[in-house]
Each structure stands twice: as C-alpha cells, then as structure tokens.
Amino acid sequence: GQQLNQSPQSMFIQEGEDVSMNCTSSSIFNTWLWYKQDPGEGPVLLIALYKAGELTSNGRLTAQFGITRKDSFLNISASIPSDVGIYFCAGPHYGGSQGNLIFGKGTKLSVKP
Amino acid sequence: EAEVAQSPRYKITEKSQAVAFWCDPISGHATLYWYRQILGQGPELLVQFQDESVVDDSQLPKDRFSAERLKGVDSTLKIQPAELGDSAMYLCASSPGLAGSYNEQFFGPGTRLTVL
C-alpha cells in the first residue's frame, strides 16, 4: 500500500537556524500536503502542492513537490520558538476511496531559544 | 472563523466500557472523516462519510467500533467495549468537497482517549 516516509524523525535546533525535512514514497502522489500539529491539537495545513516541480512559500516556510512525484521537501527559515511541533507530510489515498489522506509519521521539531 | 468542534477533549475510561465521541464539522461541509492517531504516529483514517452515507469504513474495526452521521451534519464515533490498545487521539476532519476528489480537510482539536 501507499506509505510516506519522513526524515528526520526529530530535530533539535537553535533559534534562528534554518530547517529542512523531507518526505518520500514508493508510489506517485498527485498532491502533497504539509501539516503542523501542536501538542494536544489537530493538524493544521501549512502548504499544499498540486504540480510536480512546484515550489510554494507561506511566510518563512517553503515546500517543493518533487519532479518524480515521489517526494516533497519542507524548509523553514530563521526558526523561532513557536515553530516547535510535529510536521507531517500527507497525500490523498487513491487506492480505495479517493480523497482521504495518508500521513507520514512526522518530524518532531524542537527549537532552543 | 469556522472550526470543527469535537467533544470531549479528553476521556479516561476502563477497558470493557463504552465510549462515544462527538464531532460537529464546519457548516456546509459534505464530507466528514474520523482518524485515529496513536502516539508517535500520523493520523490513520477510520471512516469517511459523504453526507449521511459511509464512503469508506474499510479500516474501522467493526466488531467494536461504530460511526454514524444520521442527518449528514454532526457525527458520533463509538467504541464498545474499549480495549487498552484503543488509547489514542481521535481526530475529526471535514471537507467542503465530495468524496472521490481531494479537497482541503480541516481538523478538529481531537479527543484524547486513555483506556485503563
């Protein structure tokens, strides 16, 4: 079945540093999504990517849709303490009922002030 | 700003007891999803509704889990009897689009279930 592999599993960085994380799959996705989840809350959509090669920014966040359609990258520039949380990549599942999402296991980000 | 509402936020129960979770999607959203998120993992779909109809419940453990969306608006997820392995965050999401196509999903705050 479709699976999403995220790396790294966790990151400990200093405030002000840039962050890079990625998501890969053995199968093609036509949409890539990046969510952030704060402790005890539901995921919130950060960026959605719909086209291979697409590069999209949302403030200090930039995400790219890999040209093979099997990977995506998320970069955070000049990290701040409120960037702490778990970042998930996700994509729509096309094996059965279309539209529901498959999630990776997440990258946990910790930022030292 | 419209949000997905869930209650309760936290639930502690003993194994073999029955529990129920409630979700009120964003007004007008036709599609509703229930996900389960085990600690350290990403959310996994349990059931998907299009209005009042179940579109996908292939991952729902039907011997103990049930879900309904009787009037096509709010939804209830029930577990009976609860088992220790059911401890997880239960997330509800809604989407304005129809099942069968991707539309942005908006998540509620979740219900954290602990089974003792």
Task: Describe how the helices and strands are arranged.
The complex is a heterodimer of chains A (113) and B (116).
Chain A lengths: L4 E3 L2 E5 L4 E6 L7 E6 L6 E6 L5 E4 L2 E5 L5 E6 L8 E8 L8 E3 L3 E6 L1
Parallel strand pairs in A: 2-11
Antiparallel strand pairs in A: 1-3, 3-8, 4-5, 4-9, 6-7, 7-8, 9-10, 9-11
Chain B lengths: L4 E3 L2 E4 L5 E6 L6 E7 L6 E7 L2 E4 L8 E4 L6 E5 L8 E8 L10 E2 L3 E5 L1
Parallel strand pairs in B: 2-11
Antiparallel strand pairs in B: 1-3, 3-8, 4-5, 4-9, 5-6, 7-8, 9-10, 9-11
Quick tags:
heterodimer, A: 113 residues, mainly beta, six-stranded mixed β-sheet, five-stranded antiparallel β-sheet, B: 116 residues, seven-stranded mixed β-sheet, four-stranded antiparallel β-sheet, 11 strands, globular
Description:
The complex is a heterodimer of chains A (113) and B (116). With 113 residues, chain A is mostly beta strands. Chain A has no helices and eleven strands. In chain A, the strands form two sheets. In chain A, strands 2, 4, 5, 9, 10 and 11 form a six-stranded mixed sheet that branches. In chain A, strands 1-3-8-7-6 form a five-stranded antiparallel sheet, with no helix packed on it. In chain A, a hairpin with a 6-residue loop joins β4 and β5. Chain A is globular and about 40 Å long. Chain B is an all-beta fold and 116 residues long. In chain B, strands 2, 4, 5, 6, 9, 10 and 11 form a seven-stranded mixed sheet that branches. Chain B has a four-stranded antiparallel sheet with strand order 1-3-8-7, with no helix packed on it. In chain B, a hairpin with a 6-residue loop joins β7 and β8. The model of chain B has no long low-confidence stretch (mean pLDDT 93). Chains A and B meet through β5 and β9 of A and β5, β9 and β10 of B.
Structural shape of chain A: globular
Largest sheet of chain B: 7 strands, mixed
Radius of gyration of chain A: 14 Å
Helix fraction bin of chain B: under 10%
Largest sheet: number of strands, sense, barrel closure of chain A: 6 strands, mixed
- Give the total of beta strands of chain B: 11
